[in-house]
Amino acid sequence: MSLGRVAARGAGTVMAGQLARVVLQVASVAILTRLIDPTDYGLFTAGMLLVGFGEVFRDFGLSTAAIQAKELSTGQRDTLFWLNVALGAALSAAMALLAPLAAWWFGAPQLTDLARLLGLVFLLNGAVAQYRASLNRTMRFNALVVSDLGANLVGVGVAVAMAANGWSYWSLVGQSLAGGVALLLLTGFQAGWLPGRPRRGTGVRAMVRYGAALVASQFISYLNNNFDNMVIGTRMGLEPLGLYSRAYQLLMRTVNQFRVPTTTVALPVLSRLDGRDRNDAFVLAGQKALGYAIVPLIAVAGATAVPIVAIFTGPKFQAIATPFAILAVASAFQTVAYVGYWVYLARGLTKHLLTYSLIGLVGRALGILIGSSWGIVGVAIGFAVSEALLWPISIWWLSRYTPMPVRSLYAGAFRVLGVAAVAGVAGYYAVGASAALPSIVQLIIGVVVVGLGYLAAAVIPAFRRDYQEMISFARMALPQRAG
């Protein structure tokens, strides 16, 4: 089977799994936001800021190094497994020591015990890292999807049961730990191997160097992704943090459920492609696939923010509708630039990724800090403006270090963003005009108007060609009949 068909089939499998995860995530948000208060969400989010920071170092980039490597021996795999476990255990211990400091910083004594228990996530994720890398490397995408979805089901089930019995923020801790245990068991079973003892002289030093350069970029990426939460938690308190985190989870994390796993397919394929023409073709096709599969959903989310929030979060979280819509704009810009991340990893350009990540951090931090003077809405605006300014810079920066079809990527991004803007604005005004109707009717109207906007764009030849390419790609992703 050609790599193109493998990529298409893999993308189809991953997207189907992610669709199921998104449905599960949205359902869990709809239930849990009615059982847990914004302040409790803020407390849990503060704890997860520490977990996210530690997660940067837990993996140390070793799973990506294993996927990207041309060859991986059993000795290397086993040694990398125990390195990940050791790092996870060390970070769990560090979390226990730092928990009182975090509680003092946020002015929340209950954060001490919460953070210490959440620290066990490091150990679980360290143990699962090389199992996931093994499945990814061998392009066993079905196994990855089954493991991820099963773990999410277990975690959500535990959280809902605990929240219904009055466990408040502890139910969210239970979700993280139960999901982590389930993921380790399911992924280990799917991978079908047990780790041997670590051995010297297996040649993992080069992988550790690759991972070390990647860790620095991941640390900057962590700050990029969490600086808004840090600023809100420090300057505004736990309740605004809880509100903003729900808007972020409902929009950005839902989008990431589709966007981030595409690296699962793209990294092993790009690492094996030879020749610039084939690489350029894959990158351009990847941008279109992301743009026309994900950005329309983002346009719908932005246009129908008010009814979405009313339906899925309940009365305690109505204030998040505006930041939710603004975050949709930021997410669209992030999506058209996301293929650059694939290229950085596949071509081993982790040092250059680090440099650009620093540039991006400065831009986002400035936007968020300036916007924070106007509350959580201002933070969302600052975030969106910085993403709008950074996405073209990200593509240009990468082209300085490796061949890239820059003009074609810009043109493709402008088409993706242009049709989303027109369709999204039309949907937004249609929803506003139907404000007197029930929320579900407003949502349906918004979806229909955005969909009609995309259909109307087909009269323009460039968009029609893009749509035809996406239809061909979708057909490749579907299972083929025998014979």
Describe the model.
The chain is mainly α and 483 residues long. It has helices at 3-32, 38-59, 62-68, 74-106, 111-118, 120-137, 141-164, 169-191, 205-235, 238-259, 262-270, 276-303, 305-312, 321-337, 339-346, 350-371, 375-399, 406-433, 439-456, 461-477. Helix 13 (305-312) packs across helix 14 (321-337). The longest helix has 33 residues, at 74-106.
In short:
This protein is an all-alpha fold and 483 residues long. It is built from 20 helices and no strands.
Beta-strand share of residues: under 5%
What integer is the average pLDDT? 84
Could you tell me how far the N terminus lies from the C terminus, measured between alpha carbons in angstroms?
Answer: 15 Å
Question: Strand tally, please?
Answer: 0
Major pleated sheet:
none
Please render the helix and strand layout as text.
Elements: H1 3-32, H2 38-59, H3 62-68, H4 74-106, H5 111-118, H6 120-137, H7 141-164, H8 169-191, H9 205-235, H10 238-259, H11 262-270, H12 276-303, H13 305-312, H14 321-337, H15 339-346, H16 350-371, H17 375-399, H18 406-433, H19 439-456, H20 461-477
Family: Belongs to the polysaccharide synthase family.
Pfam family, one: Polysacc_synt_3
Transmembrane segments: 81-108, 114-131, 143-163, 169-194, 289-312, 324-345, 365-398, 410-431, 443-463
Which features characterize this protein?
2 domains, 20 helices, 0% strand, mainly alpha, 483 residues, globular
